[in-house]
Amino acid sequence: QVQLVESGGGLVQAGGSLRLSCAASGRTFSPRSMGWFRQAPGKEREFVAAISWSGSSYADSVKGRFTISRNNAKNTVYLQMVSLIAEDTSLYYCAARDGAISQEQRQYDYWGQGTQVTVSS
């Protein structure tokens, strides 16, 4: 069974930083692509960033502020978030798939439970 476990969320003031982590485990699981999505109260879940073995992709709203990276040896993906704003407040989900990098959440096969990020203004 594949598991994705997020950590690193919390409460931070506007302008601050947080680093989210997502560890993938289970059988011999080494996903080709991993991504971060987020869902704010009353809103649909949206793409944040994704990374594959060959590159990365970002939503326009986070470009220049968020950086996605991965440690393949640890099957872990990170999301470094700086210059946080109130609009970044959301439940952040980690996702993984064995295919190419994608911004479409329906293409991801595995999901974590989410970690809450709250930015106070």
Number of helices: 0
The biggest beta sheet reads: 7 strands, mixed
Order of helices and strands: EEEEEEEEEEE
Roughly what fraction of the amino acids lie in strands? Answer: over 45%
Radius of gyration: 13 Å
Distance between the termini: 40 Å
Mean pLDDT: 94
**Apparent shape:** globular
Short description:
With 121 residues, the protein is an all-beta fold. It is built from no helices and 11 strands.
From the structure above, extract its key features.
7-stranded mixed beta sheet; 4-stranded antiparallel beta sheet; 121 residues; mainly beta
Overview of this protein structure:
The structure is a single chain. This protein has 121 residues and is mainly beta. It contains no helices and 11 strands. The strands form 2 sheets. Strands 2, 4, 5, 6, 9, 10 and 11 form a 7-stranded mixed sheet that branches. It has strands at residues 3-7, 10-13, 18-25, 33-39, 46-52, 56-58, 66-71, 76-81, 90-97, 110-111, 115-120. Strand 4 and strand 5 form a beta hairpin. The model has no long low-confidence stretch (mean pLDDT 94).
